[in-house]
Amino acid sequence: MSVSSVIEQPLDLIRASLDERVLIKMKADRELRGTLHAYDQHLNMVLGNVEETINEIVVNDNTNEQTVKTTKRKIGMLFLRGDGVILVSPPLRTK
Amino acid sequence: MSKRTPGDFLKSVVGRPVVVKLNSGVEYRGILTCLDGFMNIALEQTEEYINGIRVSSFGDAFVRGNNGLFAAFFGVNYFISILHSTGKVKKSIMLRQHTKECQY
Amino acid sequence: MLFFSFFKTLVDKEVIVELKNEVSLKGTLHSVDQYLNIKLNNVEIVDEQKYPYLGCLKNCFIRGSTVRYIQLPAADVDTDVLQDATRKEHQVNKK
């Protein structure tokens, strides 16, 4: 059940997700879901069939109301620079 | 519990439930699987909390080391969070005192 | 070095470089170095309306650290080769 036996260092977790769908949380309220094809120690990555979700807080000038605007887009193949990465999560394993 | 170096301390909490708080204020609660020299960490059974509210959960999670983890590990939040989840009263009292010492 | 080698295989291909300041540049990848600094030729600004003054840009150098994403031509990326190279790199970096 536990994956800790195989995982000695955090990057092993990412290695175990190669060729799998992963969720990546990025700075500036962006999230990416895609198939992990490559990564390095900086967390630079190449992802395939990516869906990016951007959450922006929009302030209405008149009412000063804050709303969250969510934009999504799809990208076939994407290189992403590691310095923007906050969290990487492999697909949920069935327990 | 009291170890000499921060590194020893961190090794001693591997496998235990922790809260990792980022600079942004977002918290990740989970079981610390491992960490490396960059302070990258791996968590199991991770839950994401924003403003104390659980917003999502991930089975496993990798958190990149440069997101203000440092403060989280040695800050008061971190100690408090360990005692939340150990479930051992003796230990939590000990840690709580330790926490107070840190705070004041 | 993984991504340096990878980008060398994409020289002369068309890419879209998205910078951290939201500017997107479409162009032909001329060259890349170990820091993933990039030279682009035949540059077009993706959102010309938003950045009209960038319209006169024909070729440029981009400092690697300012990059957020690079959209790649999926047909020119061999994902199997990438994944193998990533596993090798992972092994090498493991102490």
From TrEMBL, chain A:
It is found in: Nucleus. Keywords: mRNA processing, mRNA splicing, Nucleus, Ribonucleoprotein, RNA-binding, Spliceosome. It comes from the Eukaryota. GO terms for cellular component: Lsm2-8 complex; spliceosomal complex. Its main location: nucleus. InterPro entries: Lsm3 (IPR034105), LSM_dom_sf (IPR010920), Sm (IPR047575), Sm-like_LSM3 (IPR040002), Sm_dom_euk/arc (IPR001163). GO terms for molecular function: RNA binding. GO terms for biological process: mRNA splicing, via spliceosome. It holds the Pfam family LSM. Residues 9-94 form the Sm domain. Belongs to the snRNP Sm proteins family. This is U6 snRNA-associated Sm-like protein.
From TrEMBL, chain B:
One of its GO terms (molecular function) is RNA binding. The chain crosses the membrane at residues 68-87. PROSITE patterns: SM (PS52002). Pfam families: LSM. This is U6 snRNA-associated Sm-like protein LSm6. Its main location: cytoplasm. GO terms for cellular component: nucleolus; P-body; sno(s)RNA-containing ribonucleoprotein complex; spliceosomal complex; U4/U6 x U5 tri-snRNP complex; U6 snRNP. PANTHER family: SMALL NUCLEAR RIBONUCLEOPROTEIN F SNRNP-F, U6 SNRNA-ASSOCIATED SM-LIKE PROTEIN LSM6. SUPFAM superfamilies: Sm-like ribonucleoproteins. Residues 5-77 form the Sm domain. SMART domains: Sm. GO terms for biological process: maturation of SSU-rRNA; mRNA splicing, via spliceosome; tRNA processing. Keywords: Cytoplasm, Membrane, mRNA processing, mRNA splicing, Nucleus, Ribonucleoprotein, RNA-binding, rRNA processing, Spliceosome, Transmembrane, Transmembrane helix, tRNA processing. InterPro entries: Lsm6/sSmF, LSM_dom_sf, Sm, Sm_dom_euk/arc. Belongs to the snRNP Sm proteins family. SmF/LSm6 subfamily.
Automatic annotation (TrEMBL), chain C:
GO terms for cellular component: catalytic step 2 spliceosome; Lsm1-7-Pat1 complex; P-body; precatalytic spliceosome; U4/U6 x U5 tri-snRNP complex; U6 snRNP. One of its GO terms (molecular function) is RNA binding. The keyword Cell membrane does not apply. CDD domains: LSm2. It is found in: Nucleus. The keyword Nucleus applies. Residues 2-76 form the Sm domain. InterPro entries: LSM_dom_sf, Sm, Sm_dom_euk/arc, U6_snRNA_Lsm2. Keywords: mRNA processing, mRNA splicing, Nucleus, Ribonucleoprotein, RNA-binding, Spliceosome. Its main location: nucleus. GO terms for biological process: mRNA splicing, via spliceosome. Binds specifically to the 3'-terminal U-tract of U6 snRNA. Belongs to the snRNP Sm proteins family. This is U6 snRNA-associated Sm-like protein LSm2. The lineage of its organism: Eukaryota, Discoba, Heterolobosea, Tetramitia, Eutetramitia.
